[in-house]
Amino acid sequence: QQQVKQSPQSLIVQKGGISIINCAYENTAFDYFPWYQQFPGKGPALLIAIRPDVSEKKEGRFTISFNKSAKQFSLHIMDSQPGDSATYFCAARAGYSSASKIIFGSGTRLSIRP
Amino acid sequence: DTAVSQTPKYLVTQMGNDKSIKCEQNLGHDTMYWYKQDSKKFLKIMFSYNNKELIINETVPNRFSPKSPDKAHLNLHINSLELGDSAVYFCASSQAVHTQYFGPGTRLTVL
How confident is the model at residue B1 (pLDDT cuts 50, 70, 90)? Predict the structure, then answer.
């Protein structure tokens, strides 16, 4: 059972373009939505995160858009750069106890063409 | 200084063998995790320890046994390795439910 659905599986964007990765969830108990970035041979690293009480969060060139009624959220990378080429994972978590698990999406391999 | 370190980085072994992966964090975190990333990059939690106590134990074969000798260490022992165990195993740590910091991963190949 995939609780967080992510698309597309892979994405190629020209340098300077906008990269958009989409995620959807079913579990309304989810209350924390992080995005992780993973470079080849490295572990995932937290990129940006949002809680459902806001519709958008921006950090530099990275923006999360959140639609609570549609149970969807997306990552936008503005002015995409070759250094952004990596695998991106959306994720979700329900609750704030030590037993709360982060559920990851299936990942999007992003390639930025120079 | 490496925040979350794992050894070894690569592990190649025969089916049926027993192997261990070690993890150490120097962030002073109280919670540590083991994740498995399969060949399709799908990342799934296996175990979580909080202050040396097992708090998350996903549907993992009992051939996998985590051990936390102290808050800074979480090791993973795997008995009777199978072909399907081939994957990248990531250790992570966090302070309670805050940001998880991942190690560099251990690529396990079972022949």
Answer: low
* Chain A positions in Cβ-Cβ contact with residue B48 (cut-off 8 Å): 98-99, 101
Note whether A11 and A108 are within 8 A (CB): yes
pLDDT class for B60, splitting at 50, 70, 90?
Answer: confident
Given CB atoms, is A102 within the 8 Å cutoff of chain B? yes
Minimum CA–CA partner of B90 in chain A? A43
Q: pLDDT grade, residue B98 (50/70/90)?
A: confident
Judge: B104–A87 Cβ closer than 8 Å, yes or no.
Answer: no
Residue B99: pLDDT over 70? yes
CB B100 within 8 A of CB B58: no
Helices marked H in chain B — which ranges? none
pLDDT band of residue A1 (cuts 50, 70, 90) is low
Q: Say which residue the tokens 């165990």 belong to.
A: B85
Report the alpha-carbon distance of residue A15 to residue B27 in Å, rounded. Answer: 36
DSSP secondary structure letter of residue A100:
P
| Closest to B94 (Cα-Cα) out of B103, B86, B85 | B103
